[in-house]
Design goal:
Structural class of chain B: alpha+beta
Structural class of chain A: alpha+beta
Helix content of chain B: 25-40%
Distance between the termini of chain A: 100 Å
Shape of chain A: elongated
Radius of gyration of chain B: 38 Å
Strand order of the largest sheet of chain A: 2-1-5-4-3
Number of strands of chain B: 13
Number of strands of chain A: 10
Number of helices of chain A: 10
Radius of gyration of chain A: 27 Å
Helix content of chain A: 25-40%
Oligomer: heterodimer
Shape of chain B: extended
Chain lengths: ~375, ~650
């Protein structure tokens, strides 16, 4: 009896082995068809192979739809310098732009935008990520592609992300997207790639548009550029001013340029709420901005109107971040330091309708405060 | 066995092309596995080792479980101690039976296979579910067909990418809605611009009334022209400033987001170094042609210049300054000193993105139509902001309304229900709809409006900043004698209101404007003060503080009680001031009703007189006079200073 059993077991074992071999072979074939570096390919596990295959197929379908039949899908082997090496082409810039390959152009875009590209399906799968994503998230393109974005973003932001995804399928809504979310980053403070156990939240500003699909094999998706929001790169000019606010958006400081731009003296603004100074129709915009700041610590307002002291208004946009109160020394941040909001406001337009007095502050008789 | 354990030791996840490990895993996955071959201890140890956190490129599936576990471990902003994480992960592993782990892995694989089959055209029409191997084989076929006749990826020197580069470029541009441009710094000459500019700014249509220009052609047309030709005249100074290549420009500053301090700006650019140049980020308005498709028209910067035929849109330009030696024939730029500006070409390389009104409308924007206008009230109903559309509808310029109380303009009939709404809106975060009501225009006639009010609350400190009112015109030039048509009026009101209406404009000795002003203006103040007082009652026991408002406070329920009792003697179905029982707030003692306060203040005698006279409504004039004298002090106390400084919690 046992001998029989043993024999049968041996046969089935052999059969199983054969099946596994065949399956591995197929997986191997599949992975070889993917545009991966050999070193990466060797370490790929089976789910990853499928994941990346899915991404590849989806992207091809996307592009096919986009460009019609004229797209060259054939040879996707391109020489990829990487972002830094592309600079070598700069010298030729002045002469001809033929030297300036699409790759360089792409790299330049991504570098200038200081972000990475993300293509999201309506279910939230990150179908495609440009390979510089590793610079921002510390995780490589092949590690991330195909995964779902909800695995990597802050739970409190999921609703907002879902909202932005939901509207993809519905026509009649604006095709543009602009929102802020927090994503996991495996980078250490110094920008080095840490390990996954020590991820932090990184605030990303995502802007892009919806790409609707017609055919069934592809789905609508979002094309987004995602970039972090460092205020450290914000250069100031005569058309911007900085301000500091307490967490309820009352001014605690404002630099002098506000006077030439809006007519208020900085002293006049202290203690005033920014909601008083904006056009009523923009209340929602500012509200959303404020909420973003409270929750996510950084925000980009849309365009809104600030009332000019003597009448009328200007269009502005504000980039803000919550920071610990400004310290005099560079000691380590004190957690009990009161938070404050730092804002850089860009003035976008000239003074519109200067003779119009819309709010009480603009009238001759002002409230005494 | 040793092979298997070696595989486990190697950390064999689902590795393609590695048989021993596959043996181990496939055994678990396939239903006909022979678990008896493996001792339980080995099985369990392999499962655990498979699930232990491993650092390996290309595979985040183990990392997925890690991440999932880390999620469970309540990931905070700061880094967790790695040891703690490890422990936690280990503990989780031990608790979960490995059959669960296996099941999860199987499910995930099946899920992936399903997704794959959905994406492959040949798999799709199949009615029955295909098995894994077939799906994989079909995937291979599909990829091969996609690639066409391309060679394999086996060449080591190439780093392949998932997308052809021009596709990637298009995708980036599409996502960014942007175009790349390079302009020289000295004169703003456009050195390069990507062809996406034609789509974004519709430049291809400038000179082509009919027919379509090739995109390529248009963008090359732009090259060589000056950027300033395309920029709004008022922004030229701004752009010039940004283009100035001087690194030591005194106005340039950076802000470090971590410390909030201003730091030294850019690194000096060496002549031969092509390091990252100074960054530029600014907004400017550029010419663009609107395509016939309907877009959001309201309240955008680009619609401001209505008089001119040229439309502008706001473009956010971000980029870097670059300079390099010009490589002209015969010029030996590299050896020359930096002082020779002509040997260096400085330019700005930037991406321009069209910036539309981009606030996400999750809560719904206040959409305003032509017969609507928007106003803002302070807590007490005084106008603090008036949309300019109000002028065409009401006749007043904004500054005529600002600072005055809305109650001065409400028709007498409507005071009640509007006061009631006012009270409601201060206590609620929702949008409150009013019924139709009449608003007095500048010329004495009334327009019928209907409004939606809501209190805008500061998200941080929960204070009410102001009340936003979206007002819709129901009908213009409503006759004074027309019915107001709202249901909150009691039947007993009709005679009284008719009396009021008729006599309103003809009170001798008191111009109707001022009479109603003093009377009505206090309503708003009182309502706001109710809230103040109510909160005071709740927060502190001292209600007898010497505040100029104390008079008003005592009077307010009185007066309003009188108002309430005017239409009919009953107060039960009217909202008694302070008793907003719908919100479930506790009743302050001072608002328990008119009767209890009767005995508390010396003023009340007058009040009862007032009440009586109002009740009789025999003489409107007299009533007005009494109320005027009674509330005369109010006019001096109309400042909103006091209660704006108070902190309410709603």
């Amino acid at each position: 009896m046992t001998a029989d059993k043993e024999k049968r077991r041996a046969i089935s074992r052999e059969a199983a082995r054969r099946r596994r071999r065949v399956e591995s072979d197929v997986f191997g074939d599949l992975s070889r068809l993917l545009p991966l570096q050999p070193s990466i390919r060797a370490h790929l596990d089976k789910p990853s192979v499928i994941r990346l295959t899915l991404s590849y197929i989806r992207m091809q379908a996307l592009l096919k739809e986009a460009a019609g039949s004229g797209v060259q899908l054939g040879n996707i082997l391109k020489f990829h310098h990487g972002l830094e090496a592309g600079e070598g082409f700069w010298f030729e810039f002045e002469k001809q732009k033929q030297e300036f390959t699409p790759l360089d152009e792409t790299n330049m875009y991504l570098k200038i935008l200081e972000g990475f590209l993300m293509v999201l399906s309506t279910a939230g799968d990150m179908i495609f990520l440009s390979d510089n994503v590793s610079k921002y998230m510390g995780l490589s393109q092949t590690e991330l592609m195909g995964h779902n974005i909800f695995e990597y973003t802050h739970p409190c932001d999921h609703e907002e992300i879902r909202h932005n995804l939901r509207q993809t399928a519905e026509l009649g809504f604006s095709l543009k997207r602009d929102f802020v979310m927090r994503i996991k980053s495996a980078l250490t403070h110094r920008g080095r790639i840490g390990n996954l156990k020590s991820t932090t939240w990184k605030v990303l500003h995502c802007q892009g548009r919806v790409k609707l699909s017609v055919s069934s094999s592809s789905v609508s998706c979002l094309l987004l550029t995602c970039r972090p929001l460092p205020l450290s790169h914000t250069l100031l000019s005569t058309h911007t001013f900085t301000s500091q606010h307490s967490m309820d958006m009352r001014f605690t400081y404002c630099d002098q340029r506000v006077t030439s731009l809006l007519g208020y003296r900085p002293e006049e603004l202290l203690g005033r709420s920014i909601y008083d100074l904006c056009h009523t129709l923009d209340t929602n915009c500012l509200n959303k901005n404020h909420l973003n700041l409270c929750l996510k610590s950084q925000s980009v307002s849309g365009q809104y109107r600030m009332l000019v002291r003597s009448g009328g208004y200007v269009w502005v946009e504000t980039h803000s971040a919550v920071i610990p109160g400004v310290q005099t020394s560079r000691s380590r941040p004190n957690p009990s330091q009161p938070l404050c909001i730092l804002s850089v406001t860009y003035v976008l337009s000239g003074v519109e309708e200067p003779s119009l007095q819309l709010s009480l502050d603009q009238t001759f008789q002002r409230y005494l405060r | 066995m040793s092979e298997q354990s070696a595989a486990a030791g190697r950390g064999g996840g689902d590795r393609a092309g590695s048989e021993p490990a596959d043996d181990v895993l496939v055994k678990h996955e396939s239903s006909d596995s022979l678990p008896s071959l493996m001792t339980p201890s080995l099985t369990s140890s392999m499962s655990f080792s498979m699930d232990m956190p491993r650092k390996r490129k290309g595979s985040t599936d183990n990392q997925d479980s890690k991440l999932a576990l880390i999620n469970d471990a309540d990931m905070e902003d700061d880094q967790n101690g790695s040891d703690g994480e490890d422990q936690h992960v280990k503990i989780k592993c031990y608790r979960e039976p490995h059959s669960q782990i296996e099941k999860r892995r199987r499910d995930k694989m099946n899920n992936l296979i399903d997704k794959l089959s959905a994406m492959i055209p040949t798999c799709n029409p199949m009615s029955r579910k295909l098995d894994k191997l077939t799906v994989l084989r079909m995937a291979v076929q599909h990829l091969k067909s996609l690639k066409g006749s391309a060679s394999s990826f086996s060449e080591v020197s190439y780093k392949p990418s998932f997308l052809p580069d021009d596709e990637l470029k298009h995708l980036v541009l599409k996502a960014a809605d942007g175009f790349l441009f390079v302009v020289g710094c000295d004169r703003g000459k456009i050195v390069f611009v990507s062809e996406s500019v034609t789509k974004i700014l519709n430049y291809s249509r400038i000179n082509t009334p009919s027919g379509v220009l090739l995109e390529q052609q248009s963008s090359t047309e732009l090259i060589g022209q000056s950027l300033f030709d395309y920029i709004h005249p008022k922004d030229m100074g701004k752009v010039k400033e940004q283009l100035s290549a001087s690194e030591s420009h005194p106005r340039e500053r950076l802000i470090d987001a971590k410390t909030g301090l201003q730091v030294q700006a850019d690194l000096p650019i060496g002549a031969s170094r092509l390091c990252s140049g100074a960054r530029r980020s600014f907004f400017c308005r550029m010419k663009y042609n609107k395509i016939p498709v309907k877009e959001e028209k309201e309240t955008q910067a680009n619609t401001s210049k209505k008089k001119e035929s040229q439309k502008y849109c706001t473009v956010h330009c971000t980029g870097y300054m670059r300079s390099w030696p010009t490589s002209q024939v015969g010029a030996e730029g590299e050896g020359e000193a930096d002082k020779q500006d002509s040997s260096y070409f400085s330019c700005l390389v930037a991406v321009g993105r069209v910036h539309s009104h981009s606030a996400p409308q999750i809560n719904g924007e206040i959409r305003v139509k032509p017969t609507e206008f928007v106003t803002r009230y302070a807590m007490d109903g005084k106008f603090t902001f008036v949309d300019q559309r109000a002028t065409t509808i009401l006749g007043y310029l904004p500054q005529e309304l600002l600072g005055t109380s809305c109650y001065e303009y409400f028709h007498q009939d409507d005071l009640l229900h509007l006061a009631d709404r006012h009270r409601k809106v201060l206590r609620s975060r929702e949008k409150i709809e009013t019924n139709s009501y009449k608003f007095k225009t500048k010329y004495g006639s009334f327009v019928t409006l209907q409004s939606q009010w809501f209190s805008f609350v500061n998200p941080w400190n929960k204070e009410v900043e102001y009340i936003v009112s979206t007002n819709t015109v129901i009908s213009y030039d409503n006759s004074r004698t027309g019915r107001s048509g709202h249901k909150s009026e009691q039947s007993g009101n009709s005679k009284a209101s008719e009396d009021c209406k008729k006599s309103l404009p003809v009170i001798p000795g008191i111009s109707s404007a001022s009479g109603t002003m003093i009377y009505a203006g206090s309503i708003g103040t009182q309502i706001a003060n109710e809230l103040l007082d109510f909160n005071k009652m709740n927060s502190s026991p001292s209600s007898g503080n010497v505040s100029p408002f104390s008079l008003v406070q005592d009077k307010s329920p009185q007066t309003l009680n009188q108002i309430n009792s005017v239409p009919n003697g009953e107060t039960s179905d009217m909202e008694i001031p302070g008793k907003s029982s719908s919100e479930g707030e506790p009743q302050g003692a001072s608002f328990s009703g008119g009767d209890s306060l009767m005995g508390e203040s010396s003023q009340l005698d007058l009040d009862s007189v007032v009440g009586a006279s109002l009740n009789s409504l025999s003489n409107d004039e007299a009533a007005m006079a009494v109320i005027m004298s009674l509330l005369e002090t109010d006019t001096n106390l109309g400042e909103t200073v006091d209660f704006e400084e108070m902190h309410w919690s709603l």
